[in-house]
Amino acid sequence: MKVHEYLKIQQQEKARQREAERQERYELQRLQEIDAQEYKKKQEMEQRSRRELCKRQQELLVKQMEERKLNKDILVSQTEMKLNRQLLEEVNDYLLHKPRPSQEVQSITSLY
Q1: Where in this protein does the record put region Disordered (predicted)?
Q2: Residue 80 exposure: Cα atoms within 13 Å on the Cβ side
Q3: Residue 44 and residue 86: Cα distance in Å, rounded?
């Protein structure tokens, strides 16, 4: 009977050891799955963050391009301003020194 009890105890010990190994594998697998889920969530958050950053950068770039276009339409180059000023001075000078038609010519032209 002692051999029978010894074998029974040995069998129970092996069963407990197998159950402990199975529990350990199950726990390890569960922890790996949790880690994988956390990693996946982290990756998704990083991708979402990158997409949002790219979207904001694109919107900012479009806004800057629109502002540049608007400013380009509004702004006049220094050369253009200088030429406009010079033309205005010439017109003013011409108007100041423009010969005035004599009274006779004015009266004749008014007849027609």
Answers
A1: 1-21
A2: 5
A3: 63
